[in-house]
Design a protein that fits this description.
Length: 922
């Protein structure tokens, strides 16, 4: 796992776990198996015969995983667009690329694979059919079924696909509309702002964007329209492909084979509170019992309306009428009167705790979707079919929150209840989830970092075994990279087997395999190995129980290149909280064993990416990552430019004018930027060549490693991309924190430094980073990661109760440097028969060092929070709280901070207080 990335998102996420778990959620019988790790932006998967998985990666790779051998084969590469260049020439990553994949139900007869992708040249998304011959995607077999024109530069792509039993294909299509700064709906009708008006797309009956389409692929590569779509063929100002409309970003889609109902996850807008423009944002899990209109951009969640907004005068009118939805936008090319009734979401949830669905926790959110379980969908001898308990339940996953929920419906298919599936497990950015032919549940995890290969991306499957289960395997190492020779110590801590007869009788085998296939085997719960030869090694731990069942987990170790060390000196400031400072001083230092350091000048300032961003309280991590990836890319490309400057290349080549040889810009224009051309130019730089640009030959450069030559080629190809507005900050300086226009100031700031080293010989580069994440000094108790004696009440408002003497909550990794006082905002309500409490603040454990202690409080100011007073919700909560405070003993550095609530006269079931907020003061 990417520890730094996890910590960054934890600073800006609100995560909690409800303490009460029903008996039905036990994990007896279930085993987790990791099939593959370290993919390059996996997007979607589908299942092939012979226990194989076909998956696609965003940048265009189509790959096949053989579960028996655990080997991956590249079936083909599809040219796709992954970037956007704005009017100022700034290049940034987008969500585009390959967005979805599915195989035909009769694949064993026709070998058809359907792929949804972004055209590499034209602004359009394409649904194409290919034949898969064994393990090869046949390019010549390509048939384009459907083309959807889009406006480049906006996210929300959709790409989920599923077939029904009649051979109809359902495809989710994102709305392709810009997110407004308000985080509300996109309704801007001004000329030049068409990309900010979702009435042109999701609300338009004559546009395929913001829809779920249903078509029937035909043998000749065309499609027909099945009966029963939203608009009959020939209906004026409509598209007959539309099955459902009014979607923002419908994602992964599934069908209930028993009822025919359609299910999907849908990603909502970012507003974290209600406003004059309408409702706060909600993500949704939706069900369609048939064709219909799901409300966006006029309604959200359970049909909560947005308000008419005149952007010309910046004035607001009446809320939209759910009983009479109309599209009156100048950008609408479809019907004015939209279909009714408007269908509400089945499940909807905000960034904060949902009062309707509190089990969904609070955090950044990104509803993915998931499958409905039906036993009849699997062969009688399928080995891992789930138990009868899950019959008819919908398993859903959220990309950001990491849980899987099991949703139950009544006999009419309406929502009944939910519970957490495998509550002890979390999943890292699950981007797709489905049952395989063997009955196991497969989860495709994108990984923590955006727009890059993630070591923690993987395919995991959850097997159900009625008898003996596989062991659960965990593997870690004290060092994953180093200059040779170096010794790594490997640990199996966390490995266990829940079958009682295997306790203490597991066998452990460590297989350390190099790229050339040489393997060293070690035994024991822990192992050590000294790496003496450069290379990339796979360390595979296989654990076997007494019944012969085994499971594995692996690590990748890089020998021959040390990890760079990146550090931010924040000049004595607190690295967790922002206290309103007008100026913040910092200094970045990078040290690399092979490259040198920024201190001695061997690492140039332009080779280090330093960014400082405001992070809204309801933030879109994709947008933040897209901005930062541009700075990172420039820093990495600078290494290539510096290599060119340090070589003899400039004696024959100039950047934008012809010399003895062609200009670098001409080279970039002549060759498309693809892996084949990159490898060709790398070989030419090292080995030399002639005859392409005239009579002059190019000298060989055998002293260059392939890694260095590739950096030079990457820089040359980048000359067609201009990024003037994504410059890195200097290595040392002063920051001026500012709240961007339109933001509420409740967010935080992220200072981040990144360096990708130059590699060593033919060993690939490694990256290092450091960050300072500053957040609001008022902590929501739901941020607590550790708890005892917590109860959550969600009606009529969310209350975070501490129950019983010695109950506590704990926060991980808070910087206590400079903290002089802590104030607790506590509710003590007679209706709850709250007994009151004093609070101890302790470090690193509930019984750790005592650094502060409040007086006992037994009552709070009188008053009643009224749900109608939304605008002053925070002020009201603070006004009617008891406010015990305590001075804090001088502490420096990061600690786990515990708040222990004490009242020895209280019974174990007594409510002591409700915790509203905790304020840290410097």
């Amino acid at each position: 796992m990417n520890h730094l990335a996890n910590n960054i998102w934890r600073f800006f996420s609100f995560i909690f776990v409800v303490g009460v778990v029903s008996a039905c959620q036990k994990s007896e019988g279930f085993s987790k198996v990791v099939l593959i790790e370290g993919m390059d932006e996996p997007m979607a998967m589908t299942f092939l015969p012979d226990n194989r998985i076909l998956f696609v990666e965003r940048k265009g790779a189509v790959k096949i995983l053989d579960q028996e051998t655990r080997k991956t084969i590249l079936a083909g590469t599809i040219p796709v667009n992954t970037k956007y260049t704005n009017k100022d020439g700034v290049v940034s990553e987008t969500e585009e690329g390959i967005m979805g994949v599915v195989v035909h139900p009769e694949f064993e007869k026709n070998s058809w694979v359907f792929i949804y992708y972004a055209d590499p040249v034209d602004p359009k998304h394409v649904l194409a059919r290919y034949e898969l011959n064994g393990s090869t995607l046949v390019e010549e077999s390509k048939k384009i079924l459907l083309v959807i024109p889009i406006d480049r530069g906006y996210n929300h792509t959709g790409g989920g696909m599923v077939f029904d039993k009649e051979g109809n294909l359902y495809l989710t299509v994102g709305n392709n509309t810009e997110n407004p700064k308000s985080g509300a709906s996109s309704l801007d009708e001004r000329p030049g702002f068409e990309g900010s008006d979702d009435q042109r797309a999701a609300g338009n009956t004559n546009d395929l964007r913001g829809k779920i389409l249903r078509i029937h692929p035909e043998d000749d590569g065309t499609y027909t329209i099945p009966e029963g779509n939203l608009f009959p063929v020939g209906t004026d100002k409509t598209k007959p492909e539309i099955y459902t409309m009014g979607h923002r970003n419908p994602w992964r889609v599934t069908l209930d084979s028993e009822t025919g109902y359609l299910y999907w996850g849908e990603i909502g807008p970012d507003a974290d509170s209600d406003s004059i423009g309408g409702s706060r944002g909600y993500d949704e899990f939706n069900q369609a019992k048939g064709p219909g209109f799901f409300g966006w951009p006029y309604f959200i969640g359970n049909n909560q309306p947005y308000t008419r907004h005149d952007f010309f005068t910046d004035t607001y009118g009446e809320p939209f009428d759910v009983n009479n939805p109309v599209n009156e936008s100048v950008n609408n090319t479809g019907l004015r009167e939209l279909p009714t009734p408007v269908i509400p979401a089945m499940i909807w949830y905000p960034y904060d705790v949902s009062e309707d669905f509190p089990l969904l926790e609070s955090s950044s959110r990104s509803a993915t979707g998931g499958p409905v379980f039906r036993r009849k969908d699997f062969a009688r001898d399928a080995p891992f079919v789930f138990p009868e308990y899950y019959e008819g339940k919908w398993l859903i996953v959220d990309f950001m929150r990491g849980w899987i929920m099991s949703v139950s419906m009544d006999e009419n298919g309406n929502y009944k209840s939910m519970e957490r599936f495998l509550p002890e497990e979390t999943f890292s950015s699950a981007i797709d989830m489905d049952f395989g032919p063997d009955g196991a549940l497969y989860i495709l995890e994108y990984g923590e970092g955006w727009f890059k290969r993630n070591r923690d991306s993987r395919i995991v499957k959850i097997e159900y075994n009625r008898g003996n289960r596989r062991p659960t395997v965990n593997v870690s190492a004290d060092k994953l990279a180093g200059a040779i020779p170096f010794t790594a110590n490997f640990s199996s801590a966390g490995t266990n087997d829940e079958d009682y007869y295997d306790e203490g009788k597991l066998t452990y085998n460590w297989a350390i395999t190099s790229v050339n296939g040489a393997t060293v085997n070690l035994n024991g719960q822990d192992a050590s190995y000294t790496f003496e030869t450069p290379g990339i090694y796979k360390v595979l731990l296989t654990v076997t129980d007494t019944k012969g069942q085994s499971n594995s987990a692996s690590l990748e170790v890089v020998a021959g290149n040390d990890l760079p060390e990146v550090s931010i000196d924040f000049k004595g400031k607190n690295r967790t909280f922002y206290f309103g400072d007008k100026s913040l001083e910092y200094k970045v230092v990078v040290t690399d064993k092979e490259d040198g350091s920024t201190t001695n000048g061997a690492i140039k300032p332009e080779e280090v990416a330093v960014t400082f961003d405001y992070v809204p309280s309801g933030f879109d991590p994709i947008q933040l990552a897209s901005k930062q990836i541009g700075v990172e890319t420039n820093a990495v490309l600078s290494i290539g430019r510096n290599l060119i400057e340090a070589s003899d290349c400039k004696s024959c080549h100039q950047y934008d004018s012809t010399s003895i040889g062609p200009s670098y810009a001409a080279v970039a224009k002549k060759y498309p930027n693809n892996p084949e051309n990159v490898n060709m130019l790398v070989r030419k730089i090292i080995k030399g060549g002639s005859g392409v640009w005239g009579d002059y030959g190019m000298s060989a450069h055998p002293q260059l490693s392939e890694a260095d030559a590739k950096r030079m080629v990457d820089y040359i190809f980048s000359l067609n991309d201009v990024n003037p507005n994504v410059a890195s900050l200097p290595l040392e300086g002063k920051l001026s924190p500012e709240v961007p226009e339109g933001e509420d100031g409740q967010g935080g700031y992220l200072l981040r430094a990144f360096y990708s080293d130059k590699g060593s010989g033919n060993i690939s580069s490694l990256t290092g980073e450091d960050f300072v994440a500053l957040r609001n000094p008022f902590l929501d108790p739901i941020l607590s990661e550790v708890r005892k004696g917590v109860q959550l009440s969600s009606k009529p408002n969310v209350n975070f109760f501490m129950v019983g003497d010695q109950s506590y909550i704990g926060f991980k990794d808070l910087d206590m440097t400079g903290i002089k006082e802590i104030i607790l905002y506590l509710g003590i309500n007679a209706i709850d028969d709250a007994k009151g409490a004093l609070v101890e603040i302790r470090l690193d454990s509930p019984t750790g060092k005592l650094v502060g202690k409040t007086e006992k409080v037994t009552e709070a100011p009188e008053g009643e929070f009224k749900s109608t007073e939304v605008a002053s919700r925070v002020d009201l909560r603070r006004r009617y709280s008891a406010k015990p405070s305590t001075a804090i003993s001088a502490v420096t550095g990061k600690h786990d901070v515990y708040f222990v609530f004490k009242n020895p006269d209280a019974r174990s079931e007594d409510i002591l207080v409700s915790v509203n907020e905790i304020e840290f003061k410097n």
